[in-house]
Every structure is written in structure tokens, then in C-alpha cells.
Amino acid sequence: xxxxxxxxxxxxxxxxxxxxxLLTILFWRNALAxxxxxxxxxNEDWSPYVVNSGEEFNGLEIEILNLILKxxxxxxxxxxxxxxxxxxxxxxxxxxxxxxxxxxxxxxxxYANFSxxxxxxxxxxxxxxxxxxxxxxxNTPFFELDPLLFKNTxxxxxxxSKFGGEFDAFIKQYANQxxxxxxxxxxxxxxxxxxxDYAVEDRLTGYALMSEAGYAGQVVSTGIVVHxxxxxxxxxxxxxxxxxxxxxxxxxxxxxxxxxQLINSYILQYIANKPSKTSPE
Length: 281
Fold this sequence. Notes:
By secondary structure, this protein is α/β, with parallel strands linked by helices. The chain contains 9 helices and 12 strands.
């Protein structure tokens, strides 16, 4: 026994040394791989852009941001907020660093920095299947329609969103017919129970909801395009240096092929949910 103990002791010391070395390497690798952690706002009910699986967040916006951040060695700490209006407030008060999926306005640019465009969004008008169909061509822009067609209708929109001059002017003129909600599901629920006649929604979000049992066969797209616009990240002024901002924007540009592939893969998931000929799209 006396001859075995020294051998075991040397073995134990060697293994302890290797284990400590491995932990040190992992620690420094993680530290070096994350030069900066950004506090990012999320709306957890934004399928398919953000999906809360219970253990982590997934979805198109998460995948795109992770792709961009990986190139610049930044990390994200996700913070769930109830609405975009709350997110803007948190950004202004320096409790938030980055907001996903933002459209540009001069008012927002007064308190936030905007990144390069990283994707586009298309906002459509959705209706309940029992809502009479209007007479229009496929993919008709809203501004080509006579606003009087909607004079006596009720429309649900996302609280705090900007849709472009024509539709924003319509909302202002017919404010008493507009129902503002925070969540996409709330707007589709209002359609189902007949509280509103139309809901304004992102194309991909609308298609994702239409694939769910609760809305399948009850909500369809009218084909009316309310708005098309580029989408950016909103960043808290000062969170990135000028050099870091340039690197971040270059990462967005360099990631465009992969971003387009991701977007197309999500579109293909819902291609079967395109409206039929009875609902132009």
C-alpha cells in the first residue's frame, strides 16, 4: 500500500491541475467571446419573430440578432417588456440598450440611434372569414384605395406602431374607429368575436397565427398592403462607441445573405397558409 499512495497522489494532482486549467481556458474564452452584453427588449408573444419555449427564447428575430452579434463578439441579455411603448420608455431612461424590429421615424431618432437596415416588413390588412370581401386587386396598396371604403369599419392596430403617411393619416382621421392593442393575438381575437372588422398585422406574424388551431379557417388576409418599410435596430445613444457602431453595422451588411435565407425558411413554413382565390393575396 505504501508504494501505491504516491502514484495516486501524483495522478490526483495532475488531474486537478488539468481540471483547473480547463476551467481557466473556458472562463477566458467566454469572457473574450463577449466584449459587450446588450440589454435587448422582447415581446414574448410575437410569433414567429420571438417565441418563448419556456426555457429560452427562439424565433426569427432571435436567430437574426444572434447571427449578427456572433460576428462582433457581442452578447444579448433579453428583457421581456409588455409593449413597444414601454420599450421606448426604458431606452430613453437608459435601462435598455437595443430594441428589435423598429421602423424609422424622426421622433424616435431624437432619442435613439438607428442601425443599418437588416430586413423589411410588409404590413397587411386581415379580416374574419365572414367579413364581406372588398372589390380590389391582389396586393393593392392601401393608399390606392378610397378611405371611404373603411369609413364605417373598426380596425385593430398595434399600439405605438407607425405605418406610413397614408394609413397614419387614416388612423388620425377615424380615431374613434381604431382599437389599439399590445399583442397580435389580441387583434385576431377581436376579429374572431366580431369586435373589429379588420386587423393590421405583419404578413409573417399573420400567417403564423392563421396556422394555429384557434384561428385557422376563421381569419384570412385581404391582400391589402397597409405599409412596406425597412426595419432597423434602435440603440441607446452611447451604448456603442463610433467604432463599435461601425463594426455592428458592417456585421449587418455582411450577414444579409444568411438573413435572407433565414427569412425564406420561415416563409416556407407558412406557405401552405396563403389565402385561397376567395381571398386575394
